[in-house]
Batch of 4 targets.
Target 1
Amino acid sequence: MNQTPARNTKVMNRFDLTSRLVAKLKNEEAVIGGIGNTNFDLWAAGHRPQNFYMLGSMGLAFPIALGVALAQPNRRVFALEGDGSLLMQLGCLSTIATLKPKNLTMVVMDNGIYQITGAQPTPAASATDLMAVAIGCGLTRSTWAADEDDFERLIDQSLTSSEPMLIGVRIDDKPGTGTTRRDPVQIRERFMNGLGVREVL
């Protein structure tokens, strides 16, 4: 029995995958970046007013994206999260499966470590298959991307999906590219303006 999840998938690079995703966004899709390297790479891949950058709240990228998807059902919403952060909030998968927002796509970047705090191994490194967990929660469109081409194919599918999708990608341990400007008020105001729910003062 395979004790380690997704070992048939290629180890990819987070910044490269994030750049591939951002390049496909043509209709002001919202993107929620999880804490740390996930949002550093989102910032560096191409800053957009529809990007929201998490600061310090581990595991909340998927729940925040759920709220945005429910509030704006005609807008495609993407969430980028690390494996350690998702493990902090696994219950959100059941909630998302129950509410079934058709416009939500989640990407979990799994390098098997808590990278920011010292590269301690996560349970996803050896025991927990996050796609199997998600499927068990009711997110039937959950799958590991085999390589970069497969990741792009899955993103293309998600842009017209009628149910939530979760894409798992195995990534290397390279640090994030760039650093998000850490101004919570500015991040919030810019994002709300980008979604058309607040005027710029």
Target 2
Amino acid sequence: MDLAEQGAGRGGAVRGRPRSESVERSIIEGVIGLLEDGVPLAEISIERVARTAGVGKATIYRRWSGREELFCDVMRTAEQADPELPGTSMRDDLIALLESIRRRGLANRSSALVHNVFAQMKSSPKLWSAYHANVIEPRRRLTYEVVRRGQENGEIRSDVDVELVGDLFSGPMLVRTAMRPDAELPDHLAEEIVDTVLEGLRPATS
């Protein structure tokens, strides 16, 4: 999904002249440039972004309702892209989802920019709430959808709570990537987590 499609998916009507991907890219790169220069998020106003990108404020507001939505797209650009799910089985899809979290964790550890922005966003409830609603929550819902399909296909028991099961799969990876920055993230970790949890969730055989 490109940036223009992301904007349309945020629920706001597209106003004014047609959107330009190159203009959106220059705006987002302008914000990233300010962050790389050490400018705190709190000091990055729409006016400053407009000056940096060489556009008018109206150009920015046609694409984003405010700083929160703009910063969410900046973080999407700086992060690993969401994975393409193979769709062959619940196990394969879950491994793909957890592997994307693992890779994102590795990238965040090596990226001073992403690490710094996350720290600043968490100190701003409004920004963190917007990021959670627009980035984190859709990924969580995708995990639940995969688990629900697994129940329907008989891959796991049907009597367990979908959200609880989703958290059982993603929780260990999130702990290692977000709460234990010193924890190892080996290549086989996603597969090991999924298979370990699945052992206790498979339907009983007669």
Target 3
Amino acid sequence: MRLLIVEDERRLARSLAQGLTAEGFAVDVVHNGTDGLHRATEHEYDLIILDIMLPGLNGYRVCAALRAAGDETPILMLTAKDGEYDEAEGLDTGADDYLTKPFSYVVLVARVRALLRRRGRGAAPELRVGDLVVDRGARRVVYAGVETSLTAKEFAVLEHLASRAGEVVSKAEILEHSWDFAYDGDPNIVEVYVSALRRKLGASLIVTVRGAGYRLVAPRG
């Protein structure tokens, strides 16, 4: 899943990005409201972590602009301000949740996962394809009754393929979903993770469509 962090405190933004990347998310970071609104408008995200006190446009205005444009991406607002009025204002502009600084990173991750579970895109908490079960909430993978341990990036790649089961998914699409916007490495890194998934889950799970990409078929055991 792809997240956008809009936070002008660069050390905090960097820390959040590193932690969430380790959790398996693809994370983009910008440091002002104008860039945040532009990035959120131009690219599709599963969730936005949005600070309120931002240079350019503040978080309230960014959130309101996105909602006015019909964008229903879940938004978790962050602020150093405290008080019922501030929280009400944030939620009135269309934010889905609100977290006051300083906050526990564990709490933030829990809030992020809760928002993703109920996000308004109709995503099921579990993906089932044949004998393959991908549990997004618990980050568990079971195939033919056997639970398999995956790295965060392996899980991200598998989750995207499972969400598009039966379709051909290009390397570019997998990169866009599972790596952050700034990634400029070798796109063949996708092959490395597909190979790892085949080793762990079975060679027939993911079919290579030459010149086009990959298709997850998950035949029954």
Target 4
Amino acid sequence: MKEEQPICYTCINENCFIKKHLHLEQMRQFILKKNSFVSKKSDQFITEGAPLQGLYFICSGKVKTVKTGINGREQIVRLTKNGDTIGFRGFGTSKRYLIGAYALEDTVLCNFSNETMLEILQNVPEFTYALMLFYADELNKSENNIRKIAHMNVRERVIDLLLYIHRKFGQIDGLIDIELSRKEIADFAGTTEEQAIRILSSLKKEMLIKTVGKRIGILAIPELRAEIMEHKYF
């Protein structure tokens, strides 16, 4: 992994917890303690079950977080981009990471160690409060996802995923700005690769989506939303 030192004060990720609190004078001492590096596409920078090494903040790039399920199969639990936080599950309550994380493209990451994060939480109340609200929001999202997955059929889960990545990453030139393999789509939707391919093919024939290689474009957002509206689309 190549060493790189992006400067927090010129960072454009306004959603990053660190960036949001740079106006506080006491944050300056903690910024100097961070470690920044580049994780190449497909590299794993967090191993599930490995000792906790603090939190990671995405400066640029995209990341998938995974959790091992039945028969050792990895299930994608989250897709993240610039400004998002990685490794927060289990932080403060566990000594090991509860998830694994892979770069989906060359990604610049900022890592704050356990010790540094603890210092921030003990000395910067505004940061601690914001992180508490973040955890509450993530818990709410997790509960909603569990409820939706329990009641959705496979087609609905794939549609829900497509709408999620469209909201999260947006479209450029008619294609969602993230490249996911059919296997990754299946893993995130909780189905098999064969079923995911069949459903994507069906949606394409119905002129609801288009595909260019691994990339997918949404052609009919209202129609797709309507299919899962009964599950309380967010």
